[in-house]
Amino acid sequence: MIVDSHAHYAHASFSGSFRYLSWEDNWALQEGTLEDLLAQMEEKDIAASVEPGIGLDFHEQIFALAARYPGRIFPAAGCHPTRCIYERWSQRRLLRDYARAEGVVAIGETGLDYHYKREEQHRLKQHIWFIYQLNLAWKLKLPVILHVRDAHEDALRILRWHPARKLGGVIHCFYGSKEIAEQYLKLGYH
User: How confident is the model at residue 28 (pLDDT cuts 50, 70, 90)?
Assistant: First the structure.
């Protein structure tokens, strides 16, 4: 059995008909619906998908999708590093409430993203939200879905001292070196 650890099926591009890569006909492009895609995934023993949060305004769609596909789509609660910079700090309680909702399996998508110009990154705000979400994961004993891009040094430094590292999780958006990957693996991440 395989679990897709990171999908965004609640996004508007998956409503109605859309194109996707199908493995039915030697990896051909196919037109279909989310139901079609999920049925093909199930046939190939991909039994479930985790749907991470990306912004506070997105969680209602995630929970609705999980309710529509119980036992197939599992919600995570989080605020993406490039989206958290637009959230008000007072809204963090809303994220806490989402994280406590029934069926939530992880905290994320969280992390650090330094890909854009420094003046557009708001690194301090990313750090504050990242640590808040790690604290939330530790309190609720949930693994994390980490989005780390061009920020491995800072992300690893934070993860090394934070007890949430003991809960494990997945590093998403990874294109670092083998040595960096080994550091995450040593901390218990996949």
Answer: confident
| 0.90 exceeded by pTM | yes
pLDDT tens across 85-126, in order?
999 999 999 999 999 999 999 999 999 999 877 666 689 999
Decide: helix, strand or coil at residue 83.
helix
d(CA 183, CA 190): 11
Side-chain-side CA neighbours of residue 163 (13 Å): 7
Tokens for 136, please give them.
Answer: 């939330």
**Across-strand partners of 32?**
18
Gap between the Cα atoms of 112 and 91, Å rounded: 19
Quickly count: other Cβ atoms within 10 Å of residue 90's Cβ.
7
From CA 132, how far away is CA 138, in angstroms rounded?
Answer: 10
Distance CA 174, CA 94 (A): 28
Distance between terminal CA atoms of the chain?
A: 17
Q: What share of the chain is helix, strand, coil (3-state, %, to 5)?
A: 45, 25, 30
